[in-house]
Design a protein that fits this description.
Number of helices: 10
Radius of gyration: 36 Å
Shape: elongated
CATH class of the largest domain: Alpha Beta
Helix content: 25-40%
Order of helices and strands: EHHHEEHEEHHEHEEEHEHEH
CATH superfamily of the largest domain: von Willebrand factor, type A domain
Largest sheet: 6 strands, mixed
Distance between the termini: 47 Å
Structural class: alpha/beta
Number of domains: 2
Number of strands: 11
Strand order of the largest sheet: 5-4-3-6-7-10
Length: 333
């Protein structure tokens, strides 16, 4: 909020007099008569400029400032002081993200993992009052970031997520179970897991539906997202000696039946994202369904500020009197 946006006037109509001030002063000085002095020629005065002649307009400026300041003071400017008390019923959210090599497939901008990270970061920005954490899973699972309201840290952890951090595979059940365990002791009224994967469960010692039952038991709702186009996509098929990947066309296989069952078991919903736009739409839909309840109380008080303009007017008049009776003194006032 700017300074002007925070100022109101109790008697605003006085400000309508401001445009009249320079007009009145102009008319006043136009009618002023000076003593006549007869000179044979004024050629000697042409082009003569001194510091006094250059600064003499200050007298008129001081008059304008003084009168304008008094008018503004009469309008009673007031600064608006606001205080907001926010009572937010926040939601605890765990992002459980697949980091298996298949997430490097090129059917999304850059790849699936990069797209998932960027959209998740934008989602974090919208969840102002919620605690958010990150769990990663491949063949195994670990917590990348515990629940926190420090969203800058969450986004930094998301930026650092990459494939190859853990063993290869897709342990959906283990990734979900780890996220649920992080929410188990949460006292939030709403607990959510956003489960993101592009494959079929083929690793881990926790069956996905068993993890879903645990989520239901602890009141955790799961929103499952399958990322990947339908049909075939360019994905990693082999590893180069330098650590890079060889890409080729591979079939996109997502166990949508399993993901739907997990979501349904916990009262959540399954979404399929086939490109960047649909992935953004999925997160927007989740954002709308899981809204944080916020109660906001606003207290407003106005503080008088007219005295600053009275002081300015007095100082301007004082300075005008001193200058007009000393260095700018004339024979006829």
């Amino acid at each position: 909020m700017t300074v002007l946006e925070n100022i109101v006037f109790a008697h605003f109509w006085f400000l309508l007099l401001l445009p009249i001030v320079p007009v009145l002063l102009y008319l006043r000085h136009r009618k002023k008569y000076y003593a006549e002095v007869r000179l044979s020629s004024t050629m000697g005065f042409q082009g003569v400029k001194t510091w006094k002649t250059r600064l003499r307009p200050m007298l008129q400026i001081l008059q304008v400032i003084a009168i304008s300041a008094l008018i503004i003071a009469l309008a009673r400017p007031q600064s608006v002081l606001r205080k907001e008390n926010i009572n937010a019923e926040a939601i605890d959210i765990m992002l459980s993200m697949d980091v298996s090599t298949s997430m490097l497939a090129k059917d999304f901008e850059a790849d699936r993992l990069d797209a998932s990270k960027r959209v998740a970061q934008a989602f974090v920005d919208r969840r102002k009052y919620d605690r958010i954490g990150i769990v990663l899973f491949g063949g195994e699972s670990f917590t990348q970031c515990p629940l926190t309201t420090d969203h800058a840290i969450v986004k930094q952890f998301l930026a650092n997520v990459q494939c190859g951090l853990i063993a290869e595979g897709t342990a959906i059940g283990l990734g979900l179970a780890n996220a649920v365990r992080r929410l188990q002791k949460s006292e939030a009224k709403s607990k959510v897991v956003i489960l993101i994967t592009d494959g079929v469960n083929n690793s881990g010692n926790v069956p996905p539906l068993q993890a879903a039952e645990a989520a239901k038991k602890f009141g955790v709702k799961v929103y499952a997202i399958g990322v990947g186009t339908r049909g075939r996509a360019k994905g990693p098929v082999a590893r180069k000696p330098n650590g890079g990947f060889v890409y080729g066309w591979v079939d996109v296989e997502i166990d949508e039946e399993l993901m739907t069952a997990i979501a349904k078991e916990t009262g959540g919903q399954y979404f399929r994202a086939t490109d960047m736009a649909s992935l953004e739409a999925v997160y927007a839909e989740i954002d709308k369904m899981e809204r944080t309840k916020i109660e906001k109380s606003t207290f407003r008080r106005n503080r008088e500020e007219f005295h600053w303009f009275v002081i300015l007017a007095v100082l301007s008049v004082f300075l005008y009197m001193i200058l007009s009776n000393t260095i700018f003194r004339t024979i006829v006032q």
